[in-house]
Amino acid sequence: MLSVVLKAVDAVNKIKLKSNPLPVLYFHRVLPTATAFCPDDWHLDNFQLLIRKLSKHFTLMSLEDALQCLENNTLPSNALCLTFDDGYQDNYELAAPVIESVGGKASFFVSTQGTERGYLWNDELLEIVKCTEAKSLVFHGKHFNLDTEEQKAAAYLSLVGQLKVLPNSTRDSHLIELQQTLGKAETPRCMMTASQLVELQNRGHCIGAHTHTHSILAYQADDVAFNEIELSVRFLNKLLPKNVTCFAYPNGWFGRDFNEQHEEMLRQSGVAYGFATNDGGITLNSPKTRLPRFMPHRKELNQFCISIKKIAGEKLSD
Fold it and tell me: Cα separation of 119 and 226, whole Å?
């Protein structure tokens, strides 16, 4: 029955868009078990169920392969791309093997400071909040209780939301302030290593850039934003056997988190494709440096599959 519904949505999309749009999903982490510190991320058991379901109805392709097929007019009507942002170690240890077990390929967008030192600023913040012995925190007029794991997780998520929309220098100074208030904590390596990125590319997966420090470009001065793009692209091009062709904008909503100026910076860095987080599917008419990605809200697996096709039939949001 699901196959019939998916084919019907395909037919509607083809009439509306004159082609079968390519859907691209975005993920971040695949964790061994659920945690309150990462409430929106998949854990291994439900991710395995998802991939088994998707493999029955979609062809799981890397972005580079799918985009090449799209331009050659050879894209399978059931093509689907799975992308993972930031470059976490569990992408290599858990996500990639699950996808490979059904014959699929994926794409991984890497914030390269994490590759260099093993973690990003938000991972450092997580450990500071998680490990503190403080029972409460007042930070810039906001009070947080820190008695329980759930309260610490809620505080961490709120602080990440505040810090990520700041200029890099302000974000980093606030992180130091929080460390001085709550105490230092060791941040273990949680990001993929350079050799793991090379291995994934050699195994047929796509590796793309995602800024250097996981910086939302619209909140940065122009020179800082360009440097964030350029550093990440240059690092990966020096490391990998094949140069990167894809970039994902952190947070990624066009008009809020990045704009046309950042698209031009991407082109200047020699990257062909840029990915947003606005809804829609990719066609030959899609702007190459502003391609849509999305994550269906419906997590029941049949509804998840139907949502992929329906959302892919929407136009890129303005």
Answer: 22
